[in-house]
Amino acid sequence: ALWKDILKNAGKAALNEINQIVQ
Questions:
Q1: Is the dihedral of CA 10, 13, 14, 15 positive or negative?
Q2: What is the pLDDT along the chain (23 residues), one digit of tens a residue?
Q3: Distance CA 18, CA 1 (A)
Q4: How distant, in Å, are the alpha carbons of 6, 11, 21 from that of 2?
Q5: How far is residue 17's CA from residue 2's CA, in Å, rounded to a whole number?
Q6: What is the pTM of this model?
Q7: pLDDT reported for residue 4
Q8: What distances in angstroms separate CA 12 from CA 5, 8, 9, 16, one per listed residue?
Q9: Cα–Cα distance between 20 and 5 in angstroms, integer?
């Protein structure tokens, strides 16, 4: 379960950076 949380957090961070770049 821990690795799932890590992947989830990494995915959120990546999406946040992508959104910042787009905007």
A1: positive
A2: 799 999 999 999 999 999 999 88
A3: 26
A4: 6, 14, 29
A5: 23
A6: 0.54
A7: 96
A8: 10, 6, 5, 6
A9: 23
- From the number of C-beta atoms within 10 Å of its C-beta (0-12, 13-18, 19+), residue 2 rates as exposed
Residue that the structure tokens 């999406």 belong to: 15
For the four alpha carbons of 2, 7, 13 and 15, in that order, the dihedral sign comes to: negative
